[in-house]
Amino acid sequence: MPEAVLRRAAEEMLDWHGSGMGVMEMSHRGKEFGAIAMQAAADFRTLLAIPAHFHILFMQGGGLGENAIVPLNLSRGTKADFVITGSWSAKSQKEAQRYCATRVAASNAADQHTRLPDPASWQLDRDASYVHVCTNETINGVEFQALPDLRALGCDAPLVIDFSSHVASRSIDWRRVGLAFGGAQKNLGPAGLTIVVVRDDLLGRALEICPSAFNYKTVADNQSMYNTPPTWGIYVAGLTFQWLLQQREGDATGIAAMERRNIAKAKLLYDVIDSSAFYNNTVDPACRSRMNIPFFLRDEAHNDAFLAGARETGLLQLKGHKSVGGMRASLYNAMPLAGVQALVAYMREFERSHA
Ligand SMILES: *Cc1c(COP(=O)(O)O)cnc(C)c1O
Fold it and tell me: Which ligand 1 atom minimizes the distance to the CA of 134?
């Protein structure tokens, strides 16, 4: 979380704008919270240049919830294609199997999820109800640098993207997207809020068994207030959107500024890893994630000492996901360049004293 956002939320916690209530105490149907939610949606639309024919939905259930909610809404119980690029897309396919037939259109499992299959090689089903892609694989550290253009590949199915772990870190070409979803907790705000961006024409296809509160059309028709939305999460994410809109980097503003900063942060860390014989990252440079950077100490016997020293230096949460091992640095939007500079200074010093 950006520190400025946390401070603002703290200042307003007991009394929002002189209303005599904190946001957590408001009715979600009152005019105060109505204004907060409308502003948050408008700012998110501006920030990511989301065209008018897409709805922005504030939901609950997280990324894993959407793994079921998407097929409940889009599959019509028929079939869907999945591009398997790491742990998250694999999970999405597994969950969707409960609601429709699934096919693997491409997979990088044979490469241990370290490179992305070229879209030209994907075996897409023309009749698929949708094609699912995880655009940033948080655990494996691979990221699509451009969205696939399904139409150019001869497939008219809508592209569904899971952008949970890199939403708002870069711009999005909405011409290529049918639906995007993500949990807010990595780059936008507190856990509990899920954001869905869905194209108009994809509403109204839900299966009969789809819970009403998870039916995109019902949620859209009720401006995300069919049931009580995660009000605190929407409010804090809204503060983050305003913070993002204010960012400047040279002549760039908003997302473009964020993207520049994220490129610089990631380059700093990858350069240190690549120029060292002590550290190692196995992901194809063409698809390395800017947000989640897994790396290994070539001598894993130093892992515990590395993590303990990092903790003492104030560098936290560097242990890699258990399925991959090693280390992982997550350089989300709110991580300043100074944080990455501190990390690489520590890494160089640790290498000097342990190589
Ligand atoms: C973190 C993450 C999720 C998380 O799902 P939750 O249900 O919100 O825990 C889903 N997809 C990706 C790519 C993630 O990084």
Answer: 13
